Amino acid sequence: MQIEKIKIEEHNQELLKAHQRKFDFIAADVKDVDELLQKLIDFQVAIPSWALGTGGTRFARFGGGGEPRNLEEKIEDIGLLHALNKSSGAISLHIPWDIPENASHIKALAAQNGLKFDAMNSNTFQDQPGQEWSYKFGSMQHVNKAVRRQAVEHNIEVIRHGIELGSESLTVWLSDGSCFPGQLNFRKAFQHTLESLQEVYEALPADWKMFVEYKAYEPNFYSTTVGDWGQSLLYANKLGDKAYTLVDLGHHLPNANIEQIVSLLLMEGKLGGFHFNDSKYGDDDLTVGSIKPYQLFLIFNELIEGMDAKGMNHATSLGWMIDASHNVKDPLEDLLQSVEAIMVTYAQALLVDRAQLAAAQDNNDVVTAQELLQQAFRTDVRPLVAEARRRCGAALNPLGLFRSEKVRENLVRQRGSKTVATGL
Ligand code: AFD
Ligand code: MN
Ligand code: MN
Question: Helices 293-309 and 331-350 sit at what angle, rounded to 10 degrees?
Answer without folding.
Answer: 50
